[in-house]
Each structure stands twice: as structure tokens, then as C-alpha cells.
Amino acid sequence: MAQECSGAGEALTRVFALLGKRWTGLVLAVLMQGEARFAELRRSIPGISERMLSDRLTELAAAGLLVREVVPGPPLGVNYRLTAAGEALGPALWALGSWAESHLDVLPTDRQNGSEAPASR
Q1: Torsion 118-119-120-121 (CA) sign
Q2: How many angstroms separate the CA atoms of 56 and 62, rounded?
Q3: Of 121, 120, 116, which Cα lies nearest the Cα of 47?
Q4: Cβ(35)–Cβ(81) below 8 Å
Q5: φ, ψ for residue 104 (rounded to 5)?
Q6: What is the DSSP string of 65-110?
Q7: pLDDT tens across 46-98, in order?
Q8: How many CB atoms lie within 10 A of CB 10?
């Protein structure tokens, strides 16, 4: 007799509600390399809009994974850096990247709409 499906659990539900959003993992991966200004982040993540980047940075700051620091000018600037909790995600992110290299096909870009589609097997 098969076991009843019990769900993913509260902790995984919370983590994927935050990290499962588009671009969030890439923002974290870029910040794993060190602090960065908004424009540097935008250049490092091709395809992300300013609005989306701003939204993701706000969400990650609210979750306690990064801090936003205003740098006095001129020119006035804002740096973003990971907190200890954000840095603690490093091993999980690198493990996911390693898994993807071994188990996911390369995703070709759909040039018509800029989205990516899974490669056929």
C-alpha cells in the first residue's frame, strides 16, 4: 500500500516562497561575490528590469538576507551586501548550480520574447 503524500513542510514552503521567485537566486549569487551597487547588480544580471531588481532587493532586505547602505556623496550611492544569514545560503546555491550542470540541459534563448525554454531531450 502506498504512503499518503504529506506535503513539503512549512520550512521548505517558506524558503521557496522567497527564493523561488524569478531572479532572486541570481541576485543572491551575484552578492555572494561581495557588495555591489544597484547599477553593478543590474549589469551582472542580464534581462532583469530596474523595477524587478528593486523589488527583489527590497524583499531580500525585509527577509534579513541583505542590507542596504547609503554611501554619502558626491555622488550619492547605495551599496548592497549580504548579511550572515544571506551568506549562509552560499553552499545551497552552489550545490544547486552543480546539480544543474549535471542534470539540466542548456536552456536555449527564445529570441522572439526573451524567455527561455527547456531544450528538447
Answers
A1: negative
A2: 10
A3: 116
A4: yes
A5: -110, 135
A6: SEEEEEEPSSSPEEEEEE-HHHHTTHHHHHHHHHHHHHHS----B-
A7: 999 999 999 999 999 999 999 999 998 888 889 999 999 999 999 999 999 99
A8: 8
